[in-house]
Every structure is written in structure tokens, then in C-alpha cells.
Design goal:
single chain; 577 residues; alpha+beta; Pdz3 Domain; eight-stranded mixed sheet; six-stranded antiparallel sheet; 22 helices; 37% helix; 21% strand; globular
């Protein structure tokens, strides 16, 4: 049953995370690695959210001073500053800084969303937005269109992948060192409004002029769904939005109809969460009726339980969930429910560990407050919220990176000392752990060590992505001869000449291989080059199937599903009991 009347959010705050991370220079080199498979998506946003509940302020200011009320201390101080301070005060700025500071002393996930950021923060969760409909990236201070959204206004007027946007409404943006946010703000707008863009297209001397009428654009939370082999289907979700359940059901039905899909890999790596209701609906498709999915408890919230209520679309067939350090909140609900109900196996690396539930309340001026109101627990009773110090979000986020860079491996995990209070038992007698994130049944360590050092450096510095982008841009016409993603995946390969060009490109960018580096990493480099070239031409349908050939967690999942190890790991304890 769905038991919340307000929108409850379970999201990992990536903006806060990256801001904190940039403060620690020792981690900066790892940023491209952490974000390697995440394009900078410039899909233009703009749709209002209607959350139940509101708090209104009087004329945009705090309520009148009440000197007798002890709980009005902040109100009194702000009004006193506004009326008596020696210099002019930007009251709105002071007010927002006060609210932000107040929330930072609660927990890492309670947050204030200014009116100027509200649409950008909330639109991705709603499933649609208004804009011109492009995916773009900033390449050498130039807006490069990765793909026009299918059926969107940019595609309709003739914009193409590889086009560079030089001007927006007669304002030059090429080479102006503008941020992604600045570009988005120039291009986004309400449905029905127009924006003029000047385009440079390779092979054409003069700029192309287009007038684009903004429209509503769909936003998808499902990256790809495809058949790995004759019976294993793969589905990857990037967030839990209002449309996630329908997207999942539609893709699942397509795979089951098109192929004989009898096993599933559900990839939640990099998925920072979203709507709690979306996670519950999806879990209901995987669990038998009456299985507990999750429950929540809060000081002023009654304990609420969510159980599977219907016959789902994929209840009894083999299932593996993939997790990593970026998997948080709603992703952890799914993985915890699958693990605690002995429904399937979890493979990958320990998840983030966010077990706090935020309730979003709209404020009268268009801003919003996300306040932590409860904790969520997996069916065995685990709270997987990792420890945090009140008022110290820096340590909260950097400890996550420390754990990633420590590279937990199977041997280290097996030797960890767990307090008895963190041990829980599933109905089949398997031991699972609380205390911070979901610990996979099969832990696949992050690639490290001298053998992979050169490759990691190439990824960290964005060299592979940059070369692949330039190669795809120059050879776009030739690459389109493969007609579709499947043709590219099956027939394209990085020849030795292209690989040699890449090594020269790396050296020109001050990354020189040491003795033995090329031999140790050549196949991995070629695979990543092919994946990113394919993505720039054919999208995710050419990206993930190529990337998976060297994806150790993915390969482990396929291996388990194709052997009796999958069943034996789930059923051994049942036999013992």
C-alpha cells in the first residue's frame, strides 16, 4: 500500500556532494572517474511541482516581532538587523543564508531550495519539462550538441548531433567560458516561447540560423533495456521519478514479448534515488504479495509499512541487483527488499547508506524546504543510514569518497568485524548487515593497482572521452553507415592506427605511458573508446553493450545467472534450517 500523502523524497544531493568534494583537492583527480559514464545533460527544464502542504510568509518577510515568544528569537534578530543595522542589508540573502545554516545543523540531507533553483532541482523527478530538447556538452568553451531529443523541437527544426551553438538570441556564447547553468538559463523557457540560435556545422562555411519554439520534453529515468543473451534481460535506471514505474513495466513487457526473457539484471549503479512511491511501486513488481518492502519511523510520524500488494510482472524468476557507491536511498530500498526477502542477489560494491526520508514543502515565494522527517528500514529491520555528525556535512560526504578509494575488496570485507547489533537474518537464514549502506552478496572491487594505473589516469583526466568525442565528430558520416546500434556494436572496432593516434593524443596532453602500460591496458582502452564513440552516434544502445564487455560487476552477474551458484547461494541456508 502507498501510505504517504505528501511527496517523500529519497535522493542523494549530488550538487551538495560535488561542492563539498571540490573543497578537497586530493580527490579532484578522481572526479572524471566517478562521473565517467555520466554525460553533462543539458536538457532544458521548466515545469511546476505541486506538493501538498505550504508555508506562507507575510509579504516575503518574517512575521512581526514578538518579544515575549522564546521561539521567535531568530525572527526577532533578523527583523532587528533589517531595521537597525548600520548599513543597508540584503534581507532576502540574509534570510536564505540563515535558513541554509539552520538546516546544515540538522542532518546532511535536510535542505533549502531557493526559488531560482526549484525547477532545476525538481523537474528531473517529474518525467517532463519544457525547453528546446537537446543533450549537450561543453567542449573547449563551445556548446556541442550530443543529441537532439527524439521528437523534440530542436530535432524538428533540423538540429543535428555534432552541431555547435555559437549564438543565442544574437548573444555570442562560443569561447566565452560560460558555465553549463548559464547556457541552460539562456536556452530554457516556457512552452510556446521562441529562441533563436546560430549553429556551426562541420563542412558548412556559414552559420545556420534556426528559430526554435520551446515545448514539453519527456525526461526518462530508464537509460536502457536490452537482452544480454537469449534469456537474460538488462534494465538500467538512473533515478526514481514519477514515470519510472511505467517506464519499467513498458520495457519489461517489450523484453518479455520480443525475447524469451527469464532472468533479469537490474542496474541501480549511479542511481541516487528519487520518489519513495516510485521505489515501492517497482519493488511490488519484483516481490510476491504481502512481502514487506520497507517501513519508516519518525519522531512525529507513525510507523508506516509498505507491502507488495499485487501479482507483479517479474516475481519468481532469477534477479540480480547491481549497486555501487553512488546508489542511494530509493535504490537501497529496492536492493534491501530483494536481499531481505531472499528474492535475489545483490552484486557490486557497498551502497552510499542514506536511510533518511525528506518531506518537501513548498514555501510561499516559490522556494521549498526538504526536511528529514523519518528513517526507513529494510524488511529485516536494518537502518542502512550511515553515521554522520550533526552540522558536519563535509565529513559525511568525504568519508564516502575515502571508502571508495580504499577499494573494499572481498577479502577485506570477509575479515571485517561487525558488531552483533549490525547483524540481521533473512527468512532463509542468510546474514545481512546494517550500519551503513547495503553490502552486496557478491562484492566486486573497484579496479586499482599498477596494472590499471595508466588506464585510470586516462579516464580521470577525461582523455578517453575527449578523443572519442573528436573521433565521432570527424567520422560521423562513416559511423552512421552501421545504420543502428546493433550494427555498430557487432562490427565496429578500434584499429591499431586509431589506437596509436590515441596514444599520441594522450602524450600531447602530458600523460605518457610507462614501460608495459600499453600492453596491460590496450584492450580496456579500446573498449572504452568504442563505447564512447558509439554513445556519441547511437546513444546508450551502443554504449552499454560495449562497456559491459569489460564491466566486472556485470560479468559476475551474468556468470551467476548462468550457473547454479545463483540458486545455491539463496537456497543453502533454507536447506540448513
Amino acid at each position: 500500500m502507498v501510505f504517504f500523502t505528501k511527496k517523500l523524497l529519497l535522493t542523494l544531493n549530488y550538487n551538495m556532494f560535488t561542492q563539498k568534494l571540490f573543497k578537497y583537492k586530493k580527490y579532484n583527480v578522481y572526479l572524471p572517474l566517478l562521473l565517467a559514464v555520466m554525460l553533462v545533460i543539458g536538457i532544458l527544464l521548466g515545469i511546476n511541482l505541486n506538493f501538498s502542504g505550504s508555508i506562507n510568509k507575510s509579504n516575503g518577510r518574517f512575521l512581526p516581532i514578538n518579544v515575549d515568544g522564546s521561539q521567535d528569537k531568530i525572527n526577532n534578530i533578523l527583523n532587528y538587523i533589517n531595521e537597525a543595522y548600520v548599513d543597508t542589508v540584503d534581507f532576502d540573502y540574509l534570510e536564505e543564508q540563515t535558513i541554509t545554516s539552520l538546516l546544515q545543523n540538522l542532518d546532511p540531507h535536510s535542505s533549502y531550495i531557493p526559488e531560482s533553483d526549484f525547477r532545476e532541482v525538481n523537474d528531473p523527478l517529474m518525467g517532463s519539462f519544457e525547453g528546446i530538447g537537446i543533450e549537450f556538452n561543453m567542449i573547449n568553451d563551445t556548446v556541442m550538441i550530443i543529441n537532439p531529443i527524439t521528437g523534440g523541437p530542436s530535432e524538428k527544426v533540423g538540429l543535428m548531433a555534432g552541431d555547435r551553438i555559437v549564438k543565442v538570441d544574437d548573444t555570442n556564447i562560443a569561447g566565452e567560458n560560460k558555465s553549463t547553468d548559464e547556457i541552460v538559463n539562456m536556452l530554457k523557457g516556457e512552452k510556446g516561447t521562441e529562441v533563436e540560435v546560430s549553429i556551426y556545422r562541420r563542412g558548412i562555411d556559414e552559420l545556420l540560423e534556426y528559430t526554435i519554439t520551446r515545448d514539453e520534453i519527456p525526461s526518462y529515468s530508464l537509460d536502457i533495456a536490452y537482452m544480454v543473451d537469449n534469456d537474460i534481460g538488462y534494465i538500467k535506471l538512473n533515478r526514481f521519478a514519477a514515470t519510472t514505474h511505467n517506464e519499467f513495466r513498458s520495457s519489461l513487457a517489450r523484453l518479455k514479448q520480443k525475447e524469451d526473457m527469464s532472468k533479469m539484471i537490474l542496474d541501480l549503479r549511479g542511481n541516487g534515488g528519487g520518489f519513495l512511491e516510485a521505489a515501492i511501486e517497482l519493488a511490488d513488481e519484483l516481490l510476491e504479495p504481502r512481502n514487506l518492502i520497507v517501513y519508516t519511523e519518525g519522531r512525529n510520524r507513525p510507523t508506516s509499512y509498505a507491502n507488495a500488494t499485487r501479482n507483479g510482472a517479474f516475481e519468481n524468476k532469477p534477479l540480480i541487483v547491481l549497486l555501487d557507491e553512488w546508489s542511494a536511498s530509493a535504490s537501497e530500498i529496492i536492493a534491501g527488499a530483494v536481499q531481505d526477502n531472499d528474492r535475489g542477489l545483490v552484486v557490486g560494491r557497498r551502497s552510499f547508506g542514506k536511510g533518511l526520508v525528506q518531506e518537501q514543502v513548498q514555501l510561499g515565494d516559490g522556494s521549498a524546504l526538504r526536511l528529514t522527517v523519518a528513517r526507513y528500514y529494510t524488511p529485516t529491520g536494518r537502518s542502512i543510514q550511515k553515521p554522520y555528525k550533526e552540522g558536519d556535512p563535509d565529513d559525511y560526504y568525504t568519508s564516502f569518497i575515502d571508502r571508495l578509494m580504499d577499494d573494499e575488496d572481498i577479502e577485506k570485507t570477509d575479515s571485517m568485524e561487525y558488531h552483533d547489533s549490525l547483524r540481521y537474518e533473512t527468512p532463509a537464514g542468510r546474514t545481512v548487515y546494517g550500519g551503513g549502506g547495503i553490502l552486496p552478496d557478491f562484492l566486486v572491487p573497484h579496479r586499482t593497482g599498477e596494472n590499471i594505473k595508466f588506464f585510470n589516469l586516462l579516464v580521470n583526466m577525461g582523455i578517453i572521452y575527449q578523443f572519442a568525442f573528436d573521433y565521432a565528430d570527424i567520422n560521423r558520416e562513416m559511423l552512421r553507415n552501421y545504420e543502428n546500434a546493433e550494427g555498430f556494436v557487432n562490427n565496429f572496432s578500434i584499429d591499431q592506427s586509431t589506437f596509436n593516434e590515441f596514444i599520441e593524443f594522450a602524450i600531447d596532453n602530458d600523460i605518457e605511458p610507462q614501460q608495459g602500460d600499453i600492453e596491460k591496458t590496450e584492450s580496456l582502452i579500446k573498449n572504452h573508446l568504442k563505447a564512447y564513440i558509439g554513445r556519441n552516434i547511437y546513444g546508450n544502445e551502443a554504449f552499454y553493450p560495449v562497456l559491459h564487455k569489460k564491466d566486472e560487476a556485470f560479468k559476475k552477474a551474468v556468470e551467476l545467472l548462468n550457473t547454479n551458484d545463483y540458486y545455491s547461494h539463496l537456497e543453502t541456508k533454507k536447506e540448513e534450517k
